[in-house]
């Protein structure tokens, strides 16, 4: 995305701020880390303070569909595995386009649909992943372009991500006893159910992962 020390970046769905801190530390850029959940936002702020990056990373608790940023504010908008949570992709990408400067970059890693989900898969998406916007490649690209972006790069990461989630559940199962001792058996089982669900969805052949980049026209 061409991020450097002079860049201002909006991180949508920043969680506890890991990517925002990494970007700022590696490049010197300034980041607004937008996160909907207050508890994650507070943890992120605390970690950023402890890392000595409070002057570079601003944590903001807010809704990406409602937050109002001034036009032409950011050089880049970035997001990692968050956009599929947010309903109404058309409104979302329009909102993300508005504060970007002309020529600014939108970069996202996200989920998309490779095929029609079965009722069971749809239930897993909604209840385990809170997937409110999982669209086909064609619809995804069209929505991004309609929001004022061009040069859309849609890099399918499904095979790599499938291998990752399969390895993750195997590692969790192999270390289940030690994980249970540290975090409690209940937590270990909760994580196991989630990891199993994600692995099952990717191996079902209808869920894909994408690395997407687009430029504001």
Topology at a glance:
Blueprint: E1 8-12, H1 18-27, E2 30-35, H2 38-50, E3 57-61, E4 74-80, H3 89-97, E5 100-113, H4 119-127, H5 137-146, E6 149-156, H6 158-174, H7 176-183, H8 185-203, E7 207-216
Mean pLDDT: 97
**Regions with little confidence, pLDDT below 50 for 5+ residues:** none
Shape: globular
Summarize the main sheet.
Answer: 7 strands, mixed
Number of strands: 7
The Cα radius of gyration reads 18 Å
Strand order of the largest sheet: 3-2-1-4-5-7-6
Pattern of helices and strands? EHEHEEHEHHEHHHE
Describe this protein's structure:
The chain has 217 residues and is α/β, with parallel strands linked by helices. It is 44% helix and 25% strand. The chain has eight helices and seven strands. The protein has a seven-stranded mixed β-sheet with strand order 3-2-1-4-5-7-6, sandwiched between helices.
Write a short abstract of this structure.
With 217 residues, the chain is an alpha/beta fold. It is built from eight helices and seven strands, in the order βαβαββαβααβαααβ.
Task: Identify the notable features of this structure and list them briefly.
single chain; 7 strands; seven-stranded mixed beta sheet
